[in-house]
Every structure is written in C-alpha cells, then in structure tokens.
Amino acid sequence: MEPYEYADLDAVALRGLIRGGEVTAAEVEDVARRALARADEALNALAGPPFAPGEMPHRAPDGPFAGVPFLIKDGGPFARGVPFTVGSRAVRGAVAREDHELMARFRAAGLAVLGRTAVPEMAFSFATESRRYGTTRNPWAPGRGAGGSSGGSAALVAAGAVPMAHANDGAGSIRVPASCCGVVGLKPGRGRVPCGPAVGEASFGQSAEFAVTRTVRDAAHLLDAVAAAPVGEKYEAPPPPRPYAEMIRTDPGRLRVAVSTAAAAPVDAQVAAVAVNAGKVLEWIGHEVAEDAPGVEPDDVVEAMMLSVFAAGAMLKAPERLDRSLLEAVSRRLLAETEAATALDVLAGVAAQHRATRPVGLFFTRYDLLVTPTLARPPAPHGALAYDDPGHTARSWLRRLFEYGPFTAPFNVSGNPAISLPLGQSREGLPIGVQLVAAHGREDLLLQVAAQLEEAVPWKDRKPSVLTGA
C-alpha cells in the first residue's frame, strides 16, 4: 500500500481491505507510521513521539476496526500505563493507572493506537497552542490554527495520517477543530458514550468523549462500537432503534429543520452563507426549513461553563507532581478560582445550566434539527487566542472563546448531540464547518441527515495543502 492510497481511505474501507486479505494489519501500520511522521513534521500535532510497536497491547484482533490506525488525545488520564501532560509543562511524571472506559472500548474495537495528539494546556482553549508543545498548524493553511482543544487529532486526520482519532468536547473541542480542519466532528449527547473514570465526570454532564473522522460512515460505525453507558453511569441515553451504520443508509423522512446564524458575537458573512446554504440543500432534499433558534441567554452559558472551569481546576490539582510556577496564565487563574469557589458558586452554575437547558428542550419539541455555523469565523491565525494572557479571569476567557465559537457550548450545557460537517470553504480555501444539533437521544437522526448532506454536498475530493502521500 502506498501512502497516497492509504490517505484516501476511511477507517471502514481500511478494515475491509484487511479483512479481505488485500493488505495486512502490519502493512497498514507501517504506512501509517510513515504517514504520521511526515504529517507531524509539517503540523506539530503529536504530543511526544509515536508509541513503539507493541507499546499499546491488548487490542482485540477480531474487533470491528481491528488493525485500523488511531490516535488518542493527550487530554488527561486515558490509557493504562500511558503518560499524560494535558499539554502542560507543569504536569510531570503523570501516568494513567487504569483505562478510561472508552479506551477499553477502543481496545475491544481492535484499533491500533499509535500515539498521543497535542492539546492546549488543560484542554481549555479553541487553539491548540501551548508552551509545552508549541503551535499545531492547520493542514489547509499552516499559518492558521487547527482549532482546539482536539486540534492535534483533527489536523492529523485531515492530513491523512490516520482515518480517525480520539477527541473530547467540553465546550466545542470536537466540533471547533473539525470545522477548522475540514473533517467530521460528532459530539455525542449526554449519556451516549462513557465519560469516566476521569475528571470529565466532574463537569456535570457537559463533557462528551468520541472522535474526529473524515466521513460520516466512520462516525456511525465507531459510535456503534463504543456507545452505551456502563452499568451505574449517572447519565444514560436511550438505545437507537437499529445500528447507526444501518440507519445512515435509510431516509429519515420529512423533518422540521431550523436554521440560525445569529449569535452574541459578529458572524463572518462567508461562514453564515455556508450554513444558510446547508438549509437550502436540506429544503431541496425535502425537509421543511424555517429560520429559528433556541432562546438561550449567553450569560447563562458562561455561568454554566464555570462548572467546567471547576472541573479543569480539579484536573490541575490531581497530578501528584504539579509545578504551579510553570502553568500558563489562564490555567493559574482557573486553579485560583477553583480553590476559592464555594458550594454556592457550584449551585449558581447548576442553576444557570437549567436555565439554558429548558429552552433547548422546548425548542426540540417544535423542530427535529437545528442548523448553525460551527464557528463565527474561518480558522483563526496563530496567537489570536492567547492562553498565556494574565489579563483574563475565568469568565472573561470563556467570553473570549465564545466570540470565536458562540454556537457550540450551549449544547454542551444542554447535553444535546451535535455534529460539525465540512460543508464549505472561504474565498481563501479555508474550511468552514456547519453544525447540526438534534434532540436528546437522536444521534440516529443527526447521522442520517449528515449522510444526506455528505451525499448532496460531498467534501471527499477537497484536499488540504499538507496531505500525506500527495
């Protein structure tokens, strides 16, 4: 297998070739390692060197993705025996003591995990830039950011180094980099995919774990492999009527779709136009489309997101060896505000979460789907979101993030499933993502409509300037 052939295949196609005997898993891993080295040299998207062969054992040889190359995010304790830094110089010698439940499912799926992807410090930025690992570059335009906090994963998937990679999302960290890098970013709804054991459990159901992919079918097949809450999980989503991989091949029928490009922050005209066009395509397909949006107050989103601030602060306090003097400025502030917080501060965040969640729930009694831009602007230049800025409080940092990405966090607060699709490009050729949001438990509907859009507005033939094997 040549690198250009490998880079053109999604995970389902690769697994089909391995199962059919046309290529061995060892051959796929060899080409993936070469592709990963070339892509990382251009993008700076890995958190340290790739794992040595055999360093990540215990993957199922007969799993649905057996032998398919994969990466995990350096976002905290995730894989047993694997070091983590959460993108911080202050975290030293930290090693995960057990597998996250999702990591155990990745192993059962047979994924060949080759390394860790870069994140901003504490995974608390929409730009993957840190003093520990430097700047991760966008494969479409190396002078632009890859988004965050799963920017390393999204950049390497877009560049053809791996067909999909682990990502998680506390305010948009799957969908934002997916939009920046021109890939698919599914944030499952609350209770669909396990979030523990990890600090993500402390974010009051606002964090979600999954992956970024290049195709909708990979997202559907991977969700089939890892979904379902473990016994005793605080949040559970209802099971789908059939496997997602089957449902994306069926028509969801005529749906009620709302489109909104309005936000508290200015929205770039090109970005808004791509979302509006997605609504027109859905209308052409046969859905009923109107202009509308949930009435969520931006201040309630910020206050509810303080719960995630406290979760990030708890993550900072978790490592046994933490050199606070090496933390970046916003992290120091998050830690200080977490340590100063009282039970009343936490209850205020919970109350704000309820105030934001109720109008979203009511909205989805009137509509099946919401369409918005993913970001307010195309991918930002490096340094536009300066995390090491001592002028920020936790709330001012959240507001700065939401000027860039005002559309994603409300659905972390409410827990609805959402997906970013690479449906457009700017005049400069930069990716523009469109977000689809569905009601609780309706990942099936979300993926069905995403598959319709992938067929109607295909993105497979659009390639970034940094592409393995090009």
UniProtKB/TrEMBL annotation:
The Amidase domain, residue ranges: 59-447
PANTHER family: GLUTAMYL-TRNA(GLN) AMIDOTRANSFERASE SUBUNIT A, MITOCHONDRIAL, TRANSAMIDASE
Family assignment from sequence similarity: Belongs to the amidase family.
Record's protein name: Amidase
Source lineage: Bacteria, Bacillati, Actinomycetota, Actinomycetes, Streptosporangiales
